[in-house]
Write a structure and sequence with these properties.
There is one protein chain. This protein is mainly beta. Among the domains are: about 35-225; about 310-430, Immunoglobulin-like (Sandwich), CATH 2.60.40; about 545-620, Immunoglobulins (Immunoglobulin-like), CATH 2.60.40. It is built from 4 helices and 41 strands. The strands form 9 sheets. Strands 4, 5, 6, 7, 10, 11 and 12 form a 7-stranded antiparallel β-sheet that branches. A 6-stranded antiparallel β-sheet has the order 13-16-17-23-22-20. A hairpin with a 2-residue loop joins strand 24 (about 405-415) and strand 25 (about 420-425). Helix 1 (about 15-25) packs parallel to helix 2. The chain is elongated, with a radius of gyration of 31 Å.
Length: about 625
């Protein structure tokens, strides 16, 4: 049951750097970008493009302030493209010669193109003039084309990572597969290309294009430039440098500001041993009577007596722990040593390891390897299996959630006469008999408690305020810890809790109307283990207001939302008689129709944009 908590909400006073951060523009790469892939390996590309070939490609160069002769613009010069996929995303990492300030244009535009399941897919992302307030308003102009038609059901996000000079375009895989009417698992992506361009208030001009060879294809799920791809965690650090933060005005303790995750971010190191009382299963103590059938020692041997079993996962290994009542070097006379055996099943294949002392274990199958450790101080016997060897033995890859079943242990007393039974341990319930790779619950503190305070609803482009309370298992507030917050379809934000364990977030909503999920996660620290919480969140379309002012031979239309914020990049319709002319609004929400005769009646209307803006009431005026 969630606890209620009372406090005064602190509204963040956003400065320039905060708006840049929240709009996802001009930032170091956040932990969740690229769907959790992180950054691709240096020098590895799916396809490449020559450097120095990004000139201003329009005929209006002089009118737009371009010098003569026109040099290549390093900020738009594509040098390579890396494709990558996860179970939830399809991402393109566009490497740029010198991502930064543009030579020309009021903004820039990037396109990632490919063909999948027989249909062309284009992800288009744009930024407006180099003004963070304008960028924040224009950010929603990102969109996806399926077979040449805009499909606003497909989620798309973008990050301009200056630190690594890369633009990352990420498509939501589930909504993309729905639009393509098929699964992308193992599918080839063909006809791949990426393009850059200069963007102006009412048009855009191409700059560079990187095109993959016609015969080249990228297989979904292969990820050759990302090593083994994403690990068992939900998100991974993506590199970059921390973005600047601001301090809100007013008195009292400043509210934490969202920031990007630094390269060293992520959960703390796992415990070397299971925390007290946390085991996959327990075994009764005092039941290790060494001997053979019918002839048993009258006393239980603490050196052979299992009391519990635990398993720990690492990216490259699996370690199996057996807790011993009192581990020594032997059970004592008449025995001279001990031997421990563990076995388990993975992908239907049984793996067995045997050891009497620290070092290499005897394995079945013989091709596998394991190392045994005997820790008398902590009273544990530990077998560590390289993941690659287990995958070979299992005949299948081991990924997050892969089941390891029927984990058993046997101990033996040893002397010159041979081996004598000691103790055995095995799970008795279905839960005890199955371990999922990646579950390190017992090697972390107890999971934290997370509570979300949100209205559960918001309006497209409007600011949403969300508070997250983080406490340990005993309900003690956790101050100065990082909290990750994500709204379906939007880039992840990271905040820091204050002394009351509360992280406050304030951000503009940049996803279309619909039912979404707000998710808060804590990656864990020395005081509390990883935890997450989610809440439904409904986004509504923004209402709009249209005004029309007649001038000499002109009609000027201004489109704003109900917060009196200019709505840019939208088509306003001017009707003169039976003729309709559509003009796109500029950064100030203004569209102008000129060359009109005096007294002409003009009706101005805005039809809205599905999921984003509602239609405005039409206005009629007469030209002066």
């Amino acid at each position: 049951m969630m606890r209620s908590f009372a406090y005064s909400r602190r509204v963040l006073a956003l400065g320039t750097s905060s708006v840049l951060l929240l709009s996802g523009v001009g930032l170091a790469l956040a932990a969740g970008e690229g769907g959790g892939l992180g950054l691709p390996t240096a020098g590895c590309n799916t396809y490449t493009d020559a450097a120095g070939d990004a000139p201003f490609a329009g005929s209006t160069a002089e009118a737009n302030g371009a010098p003569d002769p026109i040099p290549s613009d390093a900020a738009l010069d594509i040098t390579g493209v890396v494709m990558g996929t996860t179970s939830s995303s399809v991402a393109g990492f566009i490497r740029v010669k010198g991502l930064g300030n543009r030579f020309y244009g009021e903004g820039d535009l990037w396109t990632l193109n490919f063909t999948a399941l027989g249909k062309t897919v284009s992800g288009v992302v744009q930024r407006g003039p180099a003004d963070p307030l304008v960028d924040a308003v224009l950010a929603p102009l990102n969109y996806v084309l399926i077979a040449g038609t805009e499909d606003d059901t497909v989620g798309i996000t973008a990050v301009w990572d200056y630190a690594h000079s890369v633009v990352i375009i990420t498509l939501d895989r589930a909504s993309l597969e729905k639009a393509l009417k098929g699964s992308l698992g193992g599918a080839p992506l063909t006809a791949m290309s990426a393009r850059s361009g200069n963007r102006y208030a009412v048009t855009s001009v191409g700059s560079d294009a990187a095109v993959a060879p016609a015969a080249q294809a990228f297989t979904v799920g292969s990820n050759p430039c990302f090593g083994a791809g994403p690990g068992p965690t939900a998100t991974e650090p993506g590199g970059g440098t921390p973005a600047p933060t601001t301090t809100p005005s007013g008195t009292g303790t400043p509210s934490p500001q969202p920031t990007t995750e630094p390269p060293a971010g992520g959960p703390p190191p796992l415990f070397a041993f299971p925390r007290t009382g946390c085991l996959l299963y327990k075994d009764a103590a005092g039941d290790a009577f060494p001997g053979r059938s019918g002839v048993k020692s009258p006393n239980s041997s603490a050196d052979l007596d299992f009391t519990g079993v635990a398993v720990r996962s690492a990216p490259d290994a699996v370690s199996v722990f057996a807790k011993i009542a009192t581990l020594g070097t032997s059970p004592g006379a008449p025995f001279t040593g001990h031997k421990f055996t563990t076995s388990f099943v993975i992908n239907g294949k049984t793996v067995t390891a045997v050891a009497s002392a620290a070092g290499a274990a005897t394995m079945t199958p013989a091709t596998a390897k394991a190392t045994a450790a005997f820790d008398t101080a902590k009273s544990y016997v530990i077998f560590t299996f390289p993941k690659a060897d287990l995958e070979t033995a299992a005949g299948a890859p081991i990924t997050s959630g892969t089941a390891i079943t029927d984990l058993k242990w046997v101990s033996n007393a040893v002397n010159q006469a041979g081996d004598f039974d000691g103790d055995s341990a095995a799970g008795t319930t279905a839960e005890e008999k199955t371990y999922a790779y990646g579950d390190n619950t017992c090697f972390q503190p107890p999971a934290a408690l997370i509570e979300l305070d949100t209205t559960g609803k918001g309006v497209y482009t409007d600011k949403s305020v969300v508070d997250v309370l983080v406490s340990d298992a005993d309900e003690n507030a956790l101050p100065e810890v990082k909290v990750h917050l994500a709204l379906t379809g939007m880039p992840e934000l990271v905040g820091v809790t204050d002394e009351d364990g509360i992280a406050s977030f304030s951000f503009p909503i940049t996803v279309p109307a619909g039912s979404k999920t707000l998710t808060a996660t804590f990656l864990g620290n020395a005081d509390a283990g990883p935890a997450g919480a989610g809440a439904p969140f409904t986004v509504a379309a923004e209402s709009t207001v249209l005004k029309a002012v007649a001038g000499k031979g002109t009609v000027t239309a201004t489109l704003k939302d109900n917060d009196k914020t200019a709505v840019a990049g939208q088509l306003v319709a001017f009707k003169v008689g039976s003729k309709i002319t559509k003009i796109k609004t500029n950064a100030k929400g203004v569209a102008v129709l000129s060359r009109l005769a005096k007294g002409t009646s003009v009706t101005v209307s805005y039809a809205g944009l599905k999921g984003k803006y509602l239609a405005a009431k039409a206005v009629t005026t007469k030209v002066l």
